[in-house]
Design brief:
It is a single chain. The chain is of the alpha+beta class and about 70 residues long. Helices cover about 45% and strands about 20% of the residues. Strand 2 and strand 3 form a beta hairpin. The model has no long low-confidence stretch (mean pLDDT about 95).
Length: about 70
């Protein structure tokens, strides 16, 4: 699911539009399906995590929910 789809899903969960926010996602060629919160506006994810749609959604949804 694309980032916009994840934001829409969070908006549905919250019952309102998300507040404006900025999030940069860096994809890194590292082993395993892992992700790191680098800062408030930056996350890094492995290629394997990004390619696993369900795992990526589970990992990224709480990150999007915070500023939304």
């Amino acid at each position: 699911m694309a980032m916009k789809g994840l934001v829409r899903a969070v908006e549905t969960e919250l019952g309102r539009k998300a507040r404006p926010f900025e999030l940069h996602v860096w994809e890194l060629p590292v082993a395993g399906a892992v992700g790191w919160r680098v800062s408030e506006k930056h996350v890094a994810v492995s290629r394997a995590l990004r390619e696993d749609a369900a795992a990526y959604r589970r990992w990224l949804t709480p990150v999007i929910r915070e500023p939304a």
